[in-house]
Amino acid sequence: MTLHGAVELRGITFRYDEHEVLRDVDLTLDEGELVLVSGRTGVGKSTLLGVVTGLVPRFTGGVLTGDVLVGGRSVVAQPPRERAHVVGYVGQDPLAGFVTDSVEEELAYGMEQLGTAPGTMRRRVEETLDLLGIADLRARDLRTLSGGQQQRVAIGAVLTTHPRVLVLDEPTSALDPTAAEDVLATITRLVHDLGLTVLLAEHRLERVVPFADRICLVTGDGGIRVDAPQPVLVDSPVAPPLVHLGRAVGWDPLPLTVRDARRRARSLPDLAAPPGVPAPGGAPLLAARGVTVVHGRHVAVRELDLTLSAGRVTVLMGRNGSGKSSLIWALQGTGKRRSGTVDVDGADPAALAPAERRTRVGLVPQTAADLLYLETVDEECAAADTGAEVAPGTCWALLDRLVPGVDRASHPRDLSEGQRLALALAIVLTARPPVVLLDEPTRGLDYAGKAELARIVAGLAADRHAVLLATHDVEFAAHVADEVVVMAEGEVVSSGPPRRVLAESPSFAPQVTKVLGDPWLTVEEVAAALGDTR
């Protein structure tokens, strides 16, 4: 496939109501280049991507000025469907973009709309199934796939049309670490071998920085800063743990890969190991015994036992499709169990009325929009305060801690994915139920928001709540976990303290562990140890 030209944004300004999201933005993407878009939650990363795809302002409202060129030709006046053969787009919520029922049909759909020859369609479907490692899913109903599996299918459905430009909004946010690396390696191969131009927004920079040619930092004042990763990350508040580790120990230049950091680490002085004191466990607040969950013929959870104790944070990990979300819904009581028992303070949540269930077990699902139904953020927060019988402003204060500056008058659907998640978190945590279940709670949150969420979770544990948190975010797990439970094929395959479970797994080890080895988990531990030696 021969590609010509690049993507150019010329003088792009976008205003939504009275808020200027982008101002006089100029950006050129070269052929065969991967550009990483980063920045704080809600600063306009998705808006920038939407300008390239044509979704902004056609489906968002607002006023756009400036020009967009693909291959030297202006496309700013073209609707998204007329750009589809040159600009492929995968959004944050893949399920919302599916138009067919099965994986194979979804991969073929875009080519059907473009009139691709049947023989070519068949070949491309097979190539894409193999490329993304989803051949075993070809006949599966899209609605039965895990979030990460859906994300890979969504990427595949775009790749089959062979676009010139691929625009990805948080493409690895729902993927386990191994699957994320596989997808990013695949995208990089397309960039290098086929000259594909990729514009990719992502909050978990530790995953993407090694693959990026340049970083486009959306600054929050309407502007952008574009440069190679090294100069952008030197002083950026949005930086992965590896960069913070380099800053803590004074490395110059900063390492951007684990391999580089491991070489630098040989010169570090001997450091006293961090204290490994586990949090004391309190009384069991939730006890699950023999829980089995079945979807059709697929056994998602198989005779699983789990106890959640007061004052402890349990982190649930495992590859996509291992059964984490199915288990969480079963524990909350809404998800149907084939067998097994769940006990919360003498009652089975499945047998309780929804209102009473929420007072005992709070759940924030992967799809945060499921909890949002009112017209404004302010109304959602006020309803949460009233329902929880707490002081007015409690929910809003939580939201502002997670993502500062959200407009109270905004409709929840107009928020970014990260802002919607933060609002759902604030609503559930306002009620402070004894047992809190969080399914991928860091998706769409920047590093500052995740740090604040970690403090909120620690506060819940200190107040003797039990927290179960399912995540693919190994860095977040390293900060909050008292215990880590790893699932595979619906069963527990490993459990114990994070220093053992995370460190012993190449897939789930955080960056600091990969560089310094066991027992190090976080940059804060290293900084404290260095302080003791100086």
Average pLDDT = 90
CATH class of the largest domain: Alpha Beta
Q: How far from one another are the termini?
A: 57 Å
Rg computed from alpha carbons, rounded to a whole number of angstroms: 23 Å
Strand order of the largest sheet: 6-7-8-3-9-10
Proportion in helices: 25-40%
Quick synopsis:
This protein is α/β, with parallel strands linked by helices. Helix content is about 35%, strand content about 20%.
Write the layout of secondary structure elements.
Layout (H helix, E strand, L loop, with lengths): L6 E10 L2 E11 L4 E5 L6 H9 L1 H4 L4 E8 L2 E2 L5 H4 L3 E4 L3 H4 L5 H12 L3 H14 L15 H13 L5 E5 L7 H18 L2 E5 L3 H4 L5 E5 L5 E4 L1 H5 L7 H9 L8 H8 L18 E12 L2 E12 L3 E6 L5 H9 L6 E5 L10 H7 E4 L12 H12 L5 H9 L14 H15 L3 E5 L7 H16 L3 E5 L3 H7 L2 E6 L2 E6 L1 H4 L9 H6 L6 H11 L1
Helix pairs in contact: 5-6, 5-7, 11-22, 15-17, 16-17
What does this structure look like?
- The structure is a single chain.
- With 534 residues, the protein is an alpha/beta fold.
- The chain folds into three domains: 7-238, P-loop containing nucleotide triphosphate hydrolases (Rossmann fold, 3-Layer(aba) Sandwich), CATH 3.40.50; 240-269 and 503-534, no CATH class; 284-502, Rossmann fold (3-Layer(aba) Sandwich).
- The protein is built from 22 helices and 19 strands.
- It has a six-stranded mixed beta sheet, sandwiched between helices. The chain has a six-stranded mixed beta sheet with strand order 15-16-17-13-18-19, with helices on both faces.
- The radius of gyration is 23 Å and the shape is globular.
- The chain starts with 6 loop residues before the first strand and ends with a helix.
- The model is unreliable at 1-5 (pLDDT under 50).
